[in-house]
Write a structure and sequence with these properties.
Structural class: alpha/beta
Largest sheet: 7 strands, parallel
Helix content: 25-40%
Bound molecules: fructose -6-phosphate
Number of strands: 10
Length: 240
């Protein structure tokens, strides 16, 4: 595990973006696993700057997102599909057909999970970008998820619903279920790039580094990965 401690969010975002930018320069047809949430927004901004400077192109890049809320349509502004368009895809030359964000229809959950899982297992991800939950979740693999879990529909932890309610008018509007790549899928990526910012992540980062691997701390599943890069700002690394 390589741990890079940064001063602040901006530095974390630049260093994280540089990992993606150098990958795309080296391998223009890379397969990227992507995350949503507040953490990678700055990384995406820096990647867009590099695209505008003609340093990189997304012409041959394929992307696969980690997760999506259930019960929310694609065009809903709360969907992760919408988030990715707003934060990255609308500003680069990626082909629509190369964008993959999971989607689970209530009536066809099992089928939809199987379909996404099959699709991601066809690919070798060059990199998987991750944020981390205050409770240590990666993707939406909440505490207690087995390390051999593949794509599934999860009941979001109460803590996750409360944390994510900051994006909604009322907590009752936050979906209680999501489709997510499993811990096994995440660990299949060649490189894992985990970003963390803020004091609310400090304990989860401490546990990632110091706890014995155990399913109550999903982030500890990453400890045995051969190429894990953790980029933290000062606050997130404050307990290390
Ligand atoms: C998002 C995801 C989640 C977030 C995590 C942290 O696709 O899978 O694991 O990375 O909840 O969210 P933020 O970055 O908003 O603190």
């Amino acid at each position: 595990m390589e741990i890079i401690k940064c001063k602040n969010y901006d530095e974390m975002s630049k260093i994280g973006a540089n990992v993606i930018i150098s990958l795309l320069k080296r391998k223009p047809d890379a397969v990227l696993g992507l995350a949503t949430g507040s953490t990678p927004i700055g990384l995406y901004k820096n990647v867009i700057i590099a695209y505008n400077n003609k340093e990189i192109s997304f012409k041959d890049v394929r992307t696969y997102n980690l997760d999506e809320y259930c019960g929310i349509e694609r065009n809903n502004i709360q969907s992760y599909y919408h988030f990715m368009n707003e934060k990255l895809f609308n500003y680069v030359d990626i082909k629509k057909t190369n964008i993959n964000v999971p989607f689970a229809r209530n009536e066809f959950v099992v089928e939809d999970c199987r379909k996404y899982n099959k699709e991601i297992n066809r690919r070798i991800f060059d990199i998987q970008v991750l944020g981390i939950g205050n409770n240590g979740h990666i993707g939406f693999n909440e505490p207690g998820t087995p390390f051999n879990q593949e794509t599934f529909v999860v009941d979001l932890a109460k803590e996750t619903i409360v944390t994510n309610s900051r994006f909604f008018n009322r907590i009752e509007e936050v979906p209680t279920k999501a489709i997510t790549m499993g811990i096994k899928n995440i660990n299949n990526a060649k490189t894992i790039l985990l970003l963390a910012s803020g004091t609310s992540k400090a304990q989860a980062i401490y546990d990632l580094v110091n706890e014995e691997p155990n399913t109550m701390k999903p982030q500890t599943s990453l400890q045995n990965h051969s190429n894990l890069i953790v980029i933290c700002d000062e606050e997130a690394s404050s307990l290390l």
